[in-house]
Design goal:
Belongs to the FAD-binding oxidoreductase/transferase type 4 family. This protein has helices at about 5-15, 25-30, 55-65, 120-125, 145-150, 155-160, 195-200, 235-245, 255-265, 290-305, 320-330, 330-335, 350-365, 395-415, 440-455; strands at about 20-25, 45-50, 70-75, 90-95, 100-105, 110-115, 130, 165-175, 180, 205-215, 215-220, 225-230, 250-255, 280-285, 310-315, 340-345, 370-375, 380-390. With about 475 residues, it is α+β, with helices and mostly antiparallel strands. A hairpin with a 4-residue loop joins β5 and β6 (about 110-115). α8 (about 235-245) runs antiparallel to α10 (about 290-305) and α13 (about 350-365) packs antiparallel against α14 (about 395-415).
Length: about 475
């Protein structure tokens, strides 16, 4: 793509950032050139570590001049290869742009650099007596810029929404090298197109987010969890409707018995109760009064009488609350040793049971020896389909068969007017399937927008969409 030597590029980059903030050693190239996906071999040219928006701008302008591809790197917890540099690109790591810059108590906002880790933001909010509600299993390592670039959701979406719902303002460096201050943290700003929302979820293909002003809210009170054993997947909707009539849930998750089995096998957390059920629901709510708890128990008893719930348990302490959550949040780690093939898909909430059953039947029919692990944020229609590699099958053959599974799964997604990527982005792994969710006309508009902000196609090239 570029016309100057790699040595010259590396030397020039070293002049644009602070001393020692360009790395080319093999360990750094391997570490910062990939995310959690294992399908692509990282082959970046170099890793550059800016500390300011102006340094990012200098790198982008240099890349424009010499037509060098740039790949953003945050916590690298992505699952769609959006942060993979496999073609000699320069990786722009936000590792050192990790400062909380400004807090405003009256506005309940905090301005952060893009490399602030999710848990760091959550802890800062707690120190101010406030709450940042976007939460997920990778909160200890994922970074704010990456969260916003994929519009991350997580476990609290049913109550608090997605990452984009908490953004008051953004500072971005576009693919042309311009610095834009978007929305200026205003609550009301009706002056045309809100460009914030183009960069949120754009996976770094239009420009790089360097700073974000995030909204905070009050801390929830006395969080309480229920884990319920369900007789059938359709009962998830029966239970959800029953509880939502009287209680504002902060989370509504589900997982299959097979999924819980892998967590229990680790021995770190006990089974919630003796009764076995094919599926489980985890509900969380604020127990702010005796009336709320009385309502919850009355709804639970009604669900048992209806035959929707086989058994259940409610947390009586913070330790019990955490243990019940570990049944759900420990799934990904517990199945990781089995080389899972992951799909992150969504439909409107009411379609979930039929949708899940269709997919389950198709995969089981064609590959009866594949173990299917279901879990997800069922309260917002987001399902995580994980297919585990059989021990007697090599990785290449397994992934080849899963590519066929993708086609079947996404045909069902398309029929139900769902999304092939609910919260992990498109990156490289989902790009060829984008047409199952987006029309050709929509994709043409996406390409046009890409060209406006990144005419040289240097910003995370090859991810999400290809230029026209």
């Amino acid at each position: 793509m570029n016309t100057i030597s790699p040595e010259k590029i590396i030397a020039d980059l070293g002049q644009l950032v602070e001393p020692g903030k360009v790395r080319t050693d093999e360990e750094s190239l391997a570490t910062f050139g990939k995310d959690w996906t294992k399908l692509y071999e990282p082959k970046p040219l170099a890793i550059v570590f800016p500390k300011t928006t102006e340094q990012v701008q200098a790198v982008v302008r240099y890349a424009n001049e010499h037509k060098i591809g740039l790949v953003p790197s945050g916590g690298r917890t992505g699952l769609s290869a959006g942060a993979v540099a496999a073609n000699g690109e320069v990786v722009v790591s936000f590792e050192y742009m990790n400062q909380v810059l400004e807090f405003n108590a009256s506005d309940r906002t905090v301005k952060c650099q893009a490399g602030v880790v999710t848990e760091q933001l959550q802890n800062f909010a707690e120190e101010q007596g406030l709450y940042y509600p976007v939460d997920f299993a990778s909160a200890g390592s994922s970074q704010l810029g990456g969260n916003l670039s994929t519009n991350a959701g997580g476990i609290k979406v049913i109550r608090y929404g997605m990452s984009r719902d908490w953004v008051a303002g953004l500072t971005v460096v576009t693919g042309k090298g311009d610095i834009l201050e978007l929305n200026k943290d205003l609550e009301k700003n009706n002056t045309g197109y809100d460009l914030r929302h183009l960069f949120i979820g754009a996976e770094g293909t239009l420009g790089f987010i360097t700073e974000a002003t995030m909204k905070l809210t009050r801390k929830p009170t006395n969080l309480t969890a229920l884990v319920l054993g369900l007789g059938d997947i359709s009962n998830t909707m029966d239970v959800l409707q029953s509880f939502q009539q009287k209680i504002d849930l902060t989370a509504y998750e589900f997982f299959s018995h097979k999924a819980m089995g892998h967590v229990l096998a680790h021995g770190d957390v006990p089974a919630p109760f003796e009764t076995e059920a094919p599926f489980y629901a985890l509900l969380e709510f604020e127990s702010i009064s005796e009336q709320v708890m009385d309502d919850a128990m009355a709804i639970f008893e009604s669900c048992v009488e209806q035959g929707w719930v086989l058994d259940g348990v409610i947390s009586q302490s913070e330790t019990q609350l955490n243990n019940l959550w570990r049944l759900r949040e420990g799934i990904s780690e517990s199945i990781s040793v089995h080389t899972p093939y992951k799909n992150d898909i969504s439909v409107v909430v009411s379609k979930v049971p039929e949708f899940l059953n269709e997919i389950d039947q198709v995969v089981t029919e064609h590959y009866p020896d594949f173990e299917i692990i279901w879990f997800g944020h069922i309260g917002d229609g987001n399902l995580h389909l994980n297919i585990l590699k059989p021990q007697n099958l090599d990785k290449e053959s397994f992934f080849a068969k899963c590519a066929q599974v993708n086609k079947w799964v996404f045909e069902i997604v398309e029929r139900h007017q769902g999304s092939i990527s609910a919260e992990h982005g498109v990156g490289l792994t989902k790009k060829e399937y984008l047409g199952y969710t987006r029309s050709e006309t929509e994709v043409a508009y996406l390409r046009a927008i890409k060209h406006v902000f990144d005419p040289q196609n240097i910003m995370n090239p090859g991810k999400l969409i290809d230029p026209a």
